Amino acid sequence: MKGLDLETRTLVAQTLQRFVTEHYDPSARLHRLKTPPVDHRLHWPLLTELGVPGLAVSPDDGGLGGGAVDLAQALTTLAPGLVLEPVAEVLISTTLLAAGQSPLLAATLAGETIPVPVGLRPGEVRPRLDLAAGSLRLSGRCSAVAFAAQADSWLVAAQGAQGAMHLLAVPATQNHVRVSPYRLMDGRPAADLVFDAGALEGAQVVLGPGRAESALARASDLWLMACAADAVGIMEQLLNTTRDYLRTRIQFGVAIGTFQALQHRLADMQMQFLEARALLRAWSRALDADDPPDQLNALRRALPRVLSQAGRGVGQEAIQMHGGMGVTEELVVSHCNARLRVIASLLQAQVQATQTTEPEAA
Amino acid sequence: MSHTSPNTPFDEPAFRAEVREFVATRLSPETRRKVENGLYLDKHDYVDWQKALHQRGWFGASWPSAAGGKDWSVRQEHAFLQECAIGAAPMLIPYGVNMVGPVLYTFGDEEQKRRWLPGILSSDTWWCQGYSEPNAGSDLASLSTGAVRDGDHYVVNGTKLWTTEAHWADMMHCLVRTERTARKQQGITFLLIDMKTPGITVEPIVTLDGVHHTNQVFFDNVRVPAENVVGKEGEGWNLAKFLLSRERSFIADTGNKLRMMRQMKATAASYLPVLSVAARAVQLDRLADLEASLTALVELERDYLDQWSEGHDDGIGASVLKVRGSELLQRMSEFWREALGAHGACYDAADRKEGAGLGGQAPWIQAAAINYQYLYGRCWSVFGGSNEVQRNIIAGTLLR
User: Fold this and answer.
1) Model pLDDT, residue B323
2) What is the ipTM of this complex?
3) Of A203, A290, B74, B277, which sits with the fewest C-beta atoms within 10 Å of its C-beta?
């Protein structure tokens, strides 16, 4: 059994709950988003102080020693805040840096520098690495890299000769990388990165062939878990909000929750949420327990699909049930749906990757 | 009184292996062949299997030891049922072992327990369930089949509908109205009726699959001994609610769906090569979707078992599992028949009585087994409390 003891886990959850309440009031968040440039490090010092960057790093390496179950709980707790700092990105980066015993780890845990992973999402094409002539050269494109233009460094999953995986730490100021930044639907930033095969300045190999493979596989599983935790936390929030609205919104002289047409759709939302939550629980438990590969594969294939569909069902129905209020920018409901749509888009490559497995004839 | 499950510990992987081994060696090869190939099962297929389980001490094992069980926890019962179904064992007929048995050991008097429990455990008595009526389906409490006290007997008049396997049954556990009251849940009595009593007529109802599973049962001045009332007269509704709450741990029926997924993928695999590239991509995507949904259902079921074992109950688990389970079964069977292309149109119920079934080479023979799943699958969202009623329960609980 890996992870935090019950007391620490409860403490982390309570602390993060308070963080959301105090710093992520929906109207304050909206104001922040409407006043560019958006500071995506605004609450980073506080999150660092709370130990968030090292949640999944072992105490020997300066972290809290949480397992996947702990990460899932932390991210589910943060989810209703729709936070604008790169929490999941840094959490996953620190596990990679710890695996490579990189000197960047200590600075990241101290909040002095922010690395984000690049090319980590399952099903994505990874940049090619050329190690010739004593320099590190990457070529290829990475799409929709969250916080790429805001980070201090990129942890790039790259494919070397004969497909050998490497993990590089690349300082984010480079002549040979074209950065095209943009805004995602949920207000978070991302960018496309194009590597032009030029020698990268200050780049280092964090993990070489052999070790990189397993560390990246683990990190990409954790990334899937982070998406699931975020989505599940948001869906739970939407269900609470929608339930309250159905109870209190009066039309035709009665609460609209008395209409069976809406009741049955609420039931469908709840069932989709419960399935997604059950899969998240199973997945995080499986990652901590090192379950047999069959079981992990079934969950790995199921999660992206179920999350995308459940997120669509819950998010869009929550808007519809809130009627006119649901389509305003003011109400948090549409922002929750936007985040769920972003998660689904980022999972799409993985959904498509699961289509190609042909069943075997008996 | 609601159903409580003991927390008897067990070593799940070892126990599952033991069950697998038992199913592999003790299930009759003929019955296994029928289940594997989607063929019609006769009464003796069910009874023989239940008797084999009884011999092993695994029939009614979730009953308390005082009643002849083994105090299995809900998790152990679930693991057992899942492994049996994956191994192509027939389903356990619930009317005795899961329904009237627990009612008897919980509410029955000593004489009733002594008289009826052994026959349930040995499967020598086949029970059926007399609940629904022509005007009491989803609205069960509106039932009107009447029982009037006459000396040391009740005289029963009326009719029960959708009485599954009544034509195989020795006994019926029945809800009858002994009093007309303002609140329709009152005045209902839980009565045990011997199916050989004069005045009982069982009329077959053939369902949309062309098979005789169910019946309408008519009662014409049927005299039932008063000692066959379980609990107190007029308090049958509480017993009925208790009985229905026991179904939740296997209502999702994941073991059967896991086996069906295996069979369905084998069918799909043999027809995929003849499809165009585009059509194949569509089929593979649908298949991946169904597999994802089944994985989600399995985890949802496990999540509820965990919660129930820890004493948590959100009050909607049985409804959620029933809706998700039945709707997935229907989606799977729709995919399955469509995998046959034009031959998905074929269906002759007679082809399920004998022949090769799914193992046959001819697509129209396979289609009989597959379209049976499709057709009978339409029943699942209707019976056991229609999915609309289940959604009412879910929303009603959430909005309370």
Assistant:
1) 97
2) 0.94
3) B277
Interface residue A13 vs chain B (CB under 8 A): no
Q: For chain A, say whether B206 makes contact (Cβ under 8 Å).
A: no
**What are the chain B neighbours of A239 within 8 Å (beta carbons)?**
398
Q: Residue B360: phi, psi to the nearest 5?
A: -70, 155
| Largest separation between any pair of C-alpha atoms in chain B | 76
B140: helix, strand or coil: helix
- What is the interface size between A and B, counted as CB pairs within 8 Å? 106
Output the pLDDT for position B246: 76
B288/A301 touch (CB, cutoff 8 Å), yes or no = yes
CB contact under 8 A, B269 and A358: yes
**Single pTM value for the model:** 0.94
Contacting B residues, span 288-307, partner chain A, CB-CB under 8 Å: 288-289, 291-293, 295-297, 299-300, 302-303
- Whether residue B59 contacts residue B121, with contact meaning beta carbons closer than 8 Å, is answered with yes
Joined together, the tokens standing for residue B400 give 């309370």
Beta bridge pairs of residue B192: B173
Contacts of B291 in chain A (CB under 8 A): 298, 301-302
Tell me which long-range contacts A98-102 makes (C-beta under 8 A, separation of at least 24).
A98/A57, A98/A58, A98/A61, A98/A63, A99/A207, A99/A211, A99/A215, A99/A218, A100/A167, A100/A206, A100/A207, A100/A211, A100/A215, A101/A61, A102/A169, A102/A204, A102/A206
Output the six-digit token pair for B312.
């948590």
Q: Is A2 helix (H, G, I), strand (E, B) or coil?
A: coil
Q: Report how far residue B122's alpha carbon sits from residue B384's, in angstroms, rounded to the nearest whole number.
A: 26
pLDDT score of A362: 52
pLDDT digits (tens, 9 = 90+) for B306-359: 999 888 999 999 999 999 999 999 999 999 999 999 999 999 999 999 889 999
Interface of B with A in 316-335 (CB under 8 A): 316, 320, 323-324
Contact: A359, B287; criterion CB under 8 Å: yes
pLDDT digits (tens, 9 = 90+) for B162-173: 999 999 999 999
Residue A136: C-alpha distances to residues A29, A132, B312, B333, B336 (Å): 40, 7, 55, 54, 52
From residue A277, give the alpha-carbon distance in Å to each of A72, A232, A281, B62: 10, 6, 6, 29
- Minimum distance, in Å, between the CA of residue A270 and any CA atom of chain B: 8
Instruction: Tell whether B21 is within 8 A of chain A (Cβ).
Output: no
Comparing CA positions, the residue from B147, B159, B138, B136 lying closest to residue B205 is B159
Determine, for residues A278 and B296 on separate chains, whether the beta-carbon distance falls below 8 Å.
yes
B270–chain A Cβ distance below 8 A for any pair = yes
**Among all residues of chain A, which has the CA nearest to that of B388?**
A264
In angstroms, the separation between the Cα of residue B350 and the nearest Cα of chain A is: 25
SS3 at position B155: strand
The sign one gets for the Cα dihedral B237, B242, B248, B251 is negative
Please work out, in degrees rounded to the nearest 5, the angle formed at the alpha carbon of residue B328 by the alpha carbons of B323 and B331.
130
Tens place of pLDDT for every residue, chain A, 362 residues?
478 999 999 999 999 999 999 999 999 999 999 998 999 999 999 999 999 999 999 999 999 999 999 999 999 999 999 999 999 999 999 999 999 999 999 999 999 999 999 999 877 889 999 988 789 999 999 999 999 999 999 999 999 988 899 999 999 999 999 999 999 999 999 999 999 999 999 999 999 998 999 999 999 999 999 999 999 999 999 999 999 999 999 999 999 999 999 999 999 999 999 999 999 999 999 999 977 788 899 999 999 999 999 999 999 999 999 999 999 999 999 999 999 999 999 998 888 877 656 776 55
Query: Which chain B residues have a beta carbon less than 8 Å from that of A243?
Result: 398-399
Contact A197, A231 (CB under 8 A): no
In chain B, residues with a C-beta closer than 8 Å to the C-beta of A348 are: none
A279: nearest CB among B266, B289, B299: B299
> Which pLDDT score, from 0 to 100, does residue A361 have?
59
